Structure formats: structure tokens, C-alpha cells
Amino acid sequence: MKKLLIAVVLVLIVVMLKSCATPMGPSGGERDEEGPNIVGTEPENGTTNFSGDEVTFEFDQFIERNSFRDNVTVEPDLGIEFEMDFGRKSATVEFLSPLPENTTIIVKVGTEVTDTDRNEMDAPFDLALSTGDVLDDATVTARLLNFQTGKGEKGNRVFLYPEPFDLTQRSRYVAETDTSGLIQFGYLGEGTYKAFLVNDVNRNRIWEPERENAQPFQSEIFELARDDSIDIGTLYIDSPDTLAPEVDGVGLLSQERLRLRASEEVIWEDDAEFILTDTLENEYTRAVPLYKSEQDPTVLFAQPFRALVDTMQFLIQANGVTDNAGNSLRINVEPFIGSVQEDTTALETISHNSGSGLFPDEALEVTYSTFIDDDSVIDSLVVVEGDTETRNWAPLEVANHILRISPPEGNWEPGISYEFRVWNPWLQEREQINPDIWQRNQLGGVELTLENGDSTVTSNLTLTDTEASILVDTTFTNSIFIDNLPPLEYKAIVYEDVNGDGQWNAGTVVPFMAPEPYTVRRQIPVREGFTAEVSVSYPNKESDTEQTVSPENEEDENSESSEPNDNNNP
């Protein structure tokens, strides 16, 4: 009898565990990379005179139940409490108290609901019900784009408050962007509203200005009438990076080899250096940044001009080293002891600067792993100019760990191909580099026209290629012509500097200040000898012809002139 009782208890435990666990799909086959979709609801979307106490969502696959629990809200935010129940491919939201009368209720399912393979939903889902005869039906849409890439990103949250506005309270409505950056508030009643972007870190629907970034749309408030469907515009999201990178640790691989690990990837100027001092802050020597680790770009190597001996302790500071946002590298590490290990780093090639090609007057720069102290690097260099091999190339320069091969008489010969056979001492062989050299007749240009700019206000333009090796940073009013561009693909960022401070301002919510006009144009093609004619407009700002450029159609509006660009006379 005792054995039978134990068996019954074990069976009950197994049944309970199965009923509580998230169902798992069958194993085997290719990995599922499609997120879950809602294929039906009970009751149907748009139901009026709803008097039930629960709603059910049917999915096309098994979902991770905790992700559903964490990503369901009921709007407007009226303190309606609810709990969850689950079937095999369904989820039910049960209301714990009667719903308010004559009210449109929206049960929102966020994009972070996942299947059992952690694939997320592509877009949020709204189930709207009315406890009265009428379903509110006004809608508000907007588009949120990354201010650097011009692309949409899902999961950004916009708060929507009806009047009267109390921004210290929970937002009555919240919407999340889908993968294209689109947000939509549906089933709204008539009234006056305020909307703005919030980086809602703790997901509590309350804007906490001291720790959460917020950005306004072009208009502070807007009016909604019944049946309205309005677009409040495009908002470029600027997530300001004001956090300086820090060195987490300094290691000595040898007396002449520093290894620094930073909190994020850093870049450095040509004259960047590290200053090493003793513990009394008397300068001992300086070090040059060499290169970043290919496996981990947060790790960089540097070489001092003087050996760091093991009889001393050192402090280190950086000059000219920043993150991509321009924040200077900070080094707050404890004093470290020098090394007894003599440097045995092998001299080898690391990289070169010809990825996007070279301009006619641009030198080829080859980066080595350590200071170039081997005569074979220069003695073994071969430059093939057309069909002619040259072994004693001039001009030639060695700058610490950089071999700089400059063009003859200031410019590479037009119509001539060049091959550089650079010596790699570690491999004891030459490495071949065949760069594209953009001659004047191969270069093109961009003529950019701003359709709805203010001729009394300066606009700023940055133009970069996809590898960010070419950068044009300038100002203009209505139009600008930029020539001598290699035939590559470019991205333009244009903004109107309304307050004249030389940078784009994304606006403020309190006190309200509208964002300065801003736009991003991607995929601008430049062809050899031609000028790409490009028209751009600031979203949310009407021109004299009341036409604006739609971000989703931006690639279709590039055109090229039919006349070659005379780039031989820059």
C-alpha cells in the first residue's frame, strides 16, 4: 500500500510539472528563426459591449511564458489588475476586477514576447475592446529613426499623455516601435495629447529625468477628433554618449610592450600618445599606440620609447585617445611595476590604409606590430609601377611602427597600376598590396540640394562612405557641390543649426524645445566622372511647395547628371 501511495504521488508531481512548464517544440531539423505571431483572439478585435473577464491570444507556435508575462499591458493605465493563464499555444489575460463602463480597453502585447527558441515578435499587437456601444477609433502614428544610420529599430518606447498633463505620473498610453521604427497608438478618444520618446529603463511608464533620456516631437501637443488619423512626424533618436571610456587594466607583456583593456572600443589621432610617470608623477617616458586586437577590439597595444624596468612603479595617462563619440579615454589604475621580460615581439605587418582606395596624392601606410628596427623592411620593399620594378623607392618614411610609401613627385601617375610588395619579417616573405588609386578622371561628385531649408540659417553636412574612411564635414545654405569623391556609396547627414552652436540639438521635453531640423540620406551612389544630384528635405518641416521627403523612399530619389563632372580642375 505504501509503495502504491508513493507511485501515485510521483505521477501527480510529474503531471503538475508538465502543466506549469513552458511547452517545448519538437527537436531536430533546422533552427527556427521566425518569431511567434498572434493568429487569433477571443473575443475578436473591435468587440463592443464587452462584459467578460478575460481575453485569449492564440499563437502559431509555443511561446516562452515569462516573456509574455513581462510584455503585456492594459491601456489606458487605469490601475486594472490582471493575471495570466496558458494553454499549449495560447495565453489568457484574466481581469481581477470589473472593467470601467463605456471605456475602450486595449490589451497590448509587446515585441519582446519570444518563442521557445528566443525569437522575438516582429511587431507589437493591440487587442481593442469597448465596454460600451462605441469603440474609440482615432489613431496616431510616428516614425523613429537612429540619428546616425537613418534606420528604424524596434523596442523604442513613446509615452502618450492626455490632457491634463502630469509627467510625474504613469503614462496613460505607451507604444513601442516595430523593426521599421514605426509606432502607432490606436483606439484613442478625442482630446489634447502630448507624446515624447522615453528611454524607460525600468519599464515603469514613468519618466525619470535624472536617469532617463527623453526627446520631444516637433510639436509639443496635438488635438485629436473622433475618427482622426494623424502622423506626428519623424523623430531622429539621439542617445547621447557622455560616458568616457576607461582602461580596466594595464598589463606588461615585456619591458617594451603594453597591453591595455578599455571598457569599449577606442580610436586615436595620429599624434596620440601615452605618458608614463613614476609615482611622484615625474615623466619617465612616452608610448605610442600600435594597433587593436583583431579578436577583441577593446584591447590595444602600445610601445614605450624607454624600457619599463622592474625596479620602478608607473602611472599612465592618455592623450588623443577617445571613443567614437569623442569622449577622452580615462585611466585610473593603480601603479604597476615594470617587467624583467625583454621584448621579443616579432616584427610583422598588421594592416594598411588602402581599403577604400588611395587618392592621387595619398601615401600608402603599412602598420607593423612593433617599431620598425629591421633594415630588411626598407631594403626588401618592391614597388611595381606599371611593368617597372623599383627596389629603392623614394620618397619613403618610417614613423615608429608605420611604413609610409609616398607617391613620386606628389602624385601617383594616372593610368598606371601600382603593386606594393611589402616585406613581412615574421613570415620572411613579401605581402602584395594592390590598391585602387583614384585618379582625377575617375572621381565623381555630389550636388546636394536642400528643398525646405531656411536660407537664413546654416545647415551642416557630413558625408561619409560605408567604411568611414572618407569624411566631408562642411556647412551650406540651400545647395552645395562636393567634388573629387571616389566612386563609392555615401551617406549624408544634414541638420539645421538653428541656435548656431555648431552641433545638432535633439530638443527638450521640459521646458519644451523642438528638435532642430535633421535628416539622413543613405545609399548615395557616386560614379566615375559623374555628379550625383541629390535632393533632401527635413521631415516635419514644410517647404514652399509643401513637399517633404519620405524616409522610406529616400533611396529612390537619388539621380545622376547626364553630363560628366570635370574633376581635372578641382
Automatic annotation (TrEMBL):
Keywords: Signal. Residues 561-570 have a biased composition (Low complexity). The keyword Cell cycle does not apply. Residues 32-128 form the SbsA Ig-like domain. Pfam families: Big_5. The keyword Signal applies. Residues 532-570 are annotated as: Disordered. It comes from the Bacteria. Residues 1-21 form the signal peptide. This is Ig-like domain-containing protein. It comes from Rhodohalobacter sulfatireducens.
